[in-house]
Write a structure and sequence with these properties.
CATH architecture of chain B: 3-Layer(aba) Sandwich
Order of helices and strands of chain A: EHHEEHEHEHEH
CATH topology of chain B: Rossmann fold
Number of strands of chain A: 6
Number of helices of chain A: 6
Oligomer: heterodimer
Low-confidence stretches of chain A: 1-6, 8-13
Strand order of the largest sheet of chain A: 2-4-3-5-6
Structural class of chain A: alpha/beta
Distance between the termini of chain B: 68 Å
Number of strands of chain B: 8
Mean pLDDT of chain A: 90
CATH superfamily of chain B: Thiamin diphosphate (ThDP)-binding fold, Pyr/PP domains
Helix content of chain A: 25-40%
Mean pLDDT of chain B: 95
Radius of gyration of chain A: 21 Å
CATH class of the largest domain in chain A: Alpha Beta
Radius of gyration of chain B: 20 Å
Order of helices and strands of chain B: HEEHEHHEHEHEHHEEH
Largest sheet of chain A: 5 strands, mixed
Distance between the termini of chain A: 59 Å
Number of helices of chain B: 9
Strand content of chain B: 15-25%
Chain lengths: 175, 296
């Protein structure tokens, strides 16, 4: 068993008991043998390989929870503690008769880009409440690529959103 | 006159006994001429021979810095971890597989500054690790900045008028924190160092061996202390072997006496022994010993 392979299709195993292979890892830029090699060429190869391990598997490892996306006019995309507040706003909007879907991101990266792109073709808008002045909303906007509007509901922190603030934007977005 | 001829010996016929412990394909190493780290690796390798330790159950963990590079040169299962985190990484290895002999091999900056909290808490918990700390009195790889170990009045890149902050006395620090074995040597004391490492392998608990080592490129040069050889002479002349010396008295100065020897050798239950005892006491028959690591 060997972890040295750079073939992206091959799983990288740890060396095992009774194996004569001696393990070596480094946090530095390293070559196929696992040894430090600080040249831009090796750096390029390494970073692209590490990136592709995540990006190529994005559809499989990007985790999210979805609810009533089918037939939704507006999808609320949230993550972390804000999702619990958003849930209250979503339910209040549904009580008003609005068709609101929920997409709660569990992994921040890789971002479920193809999922958002697919939804963007079907919905009017995305509402993105987050506990900062707008970070993930840019990813949503990028993935939606103009097919659907994107609304940010920003909050500077120190507390959580008032569900009312999110509800207001959902109502505006579904017009 | 005798006619006998001295048989020629080819260089290929001469094997260095420590070669088997090195990743020869990695040579030449990155250390400067006169640096003492290579000398400590030699002593370490000789300790491996002397102690006949099972290499299959030995892991070497290092952090970042000049000494951190040791992990990349030894023919052992070795881990070159992130800055200051050699001890937590090694703690994880030991907890996951208690049968491993885990050696932490790193520098004074990595172990006592960036990883300073891990050092004292591993000593406090008495985690069964063998820590070899190569102390060159400075941050060498990054350009000779003042480290927590840099003695008073030394000139460094960050203290061009001389260091004025008090430095750590590492043996005193780790003894106070709870280490069961504490020794100090210089790179002049190659045999004593190898013996100390062998001894530490026999101890169960947190062992700490400090090796004073020159940095001719940055520390010796800036302080006009000569080259690697001059430093060896200094170590030879100014080192005093005082086994059992109170660690409070072994602080270092720039050109003064260096007290070396084995300062602490005591016994105290290690972390995993205490953990098992507590679990057995609290859980009674429900306590199940940790299963052995199996690979499949």
């Amino acid at each position: 068993m060997c972890f040295r392979s750079t073939d992206p299709a091959q799983t990288h195993y740890f060396a095992c008991k009774d194996s004569t292979y001696l393990f070596h890892v480094t946090g530095l830029t390293h070559d196929e043998r696992g040894y430090p090699n600080m040249t831009p060429q090796v750096q390029d190869k390494l970073v692209r390989r590490l990136q592709s391990k995540i990006r190529d598997a994005a559809d499989r490892i990007a985790l999210f929870e979805e609810e009533q996306l089918e037939g939704a006019d507006v999808v609320v995309v949230s993550y972390g503690i804000t999702s619990r507040v958003a849930q209250r706003a979503i339910e209040a909007a549904r009580e008003q008769g609005l068709r609101v879907g929920k997409l709660r991101l569990i992994t921040a990266w890789p971002f479920p880009e193809s999922k958002i792109r697919g939804l963007a073709a079907k919905v009017k808008a995305f509402v993105v409440p987050e506990l900062n002045l707008g970070q993930m909303v840019r990813e949503v906007e990028r993935a939606a690529a103009g097919q659907a509007k994107t609304f940010a509901v920003s909050h500077a922190g120190g507390g959580v959103h008032n569900p009312q603030d999110i509800l207001k934007v959902i109502v505006e977005a579904s017009r | 006159m005798s006619d006998s001829v001295i048989p020629e010996i080819s260089i290929n016929d001469v094997a260095n006994p420590v070669e088997q412990f090195l990743r020869s394909d990695r040579i030449p190493h990155i250390w400067c001429p006169g640096c003492g780290i290579g000398t400590t690796v030699n002593s370490f390798a000789r300790a491996l021979i002397e102690s006949k330790i099972d290499l299959q159950s030995l892991a070497l963990v290092s952090g970042i810095g000049c000494t951190g590079r040791v992990a990349g040169y030894v023919q052992l299962d070795s881990f070159h971890t992130t800055h200051g985190r050699a001890i937590p990484f090694a703690t994880g290895l030991k907890l996951a597989n208690p049968k491993l002999n885990v050696v932490v091999y790193s520098g004074d900056g990595d172990l006592s500054a960036i990883g300073g909290n891990h050092l004292i808490h591993a000593a406090r918990r008495n985690i069964d690790l063998k820590v070899i700390c190569v102390n060159n009195l400075i941050y060498a790889m990054t350009g000779g900045q003042t480290a927590p170990t840099t003695p008073d009045d030394s000139i460094t890149s960050t203290n061009p008028y001389g260091v004025f902050e008090p430095s750590f006395n590492l043996p005193h620090l780790v003894e106070a924190a709870g280490a069961v074995y504490v020794a100090r040597w210089t790179t002049f004391h190659v045999r004593q160092l190898a013996r100390s490492i062998s001894e530490a392998f026999k101890k169960k608990g947190f062992s700490f061996i400090e090796v004073i080592s020159p940095c001719p490129t940055l520390y010796q040069r800036r302080n006009k202390l000569g080259d690697g050889l001059d430093t060896m002479k200094y170590y030879k002349e100014k080192s005093k072997v005082r086994h059992g010396a109170p660690t409070s008295e072994v602080g270092l100065t720039m050109t003064g006496e260096i007290v070396v020897g084995k300062f602490v050798d005591r016994d105290r239950p290690d972390y995993q022994t205490l953990m098992r005892a507590k679990f057995a006491q609290s859980l009674g028959e429900r306590f199940v010993e940790q299963a052995e690591m199996v690979c499949s």
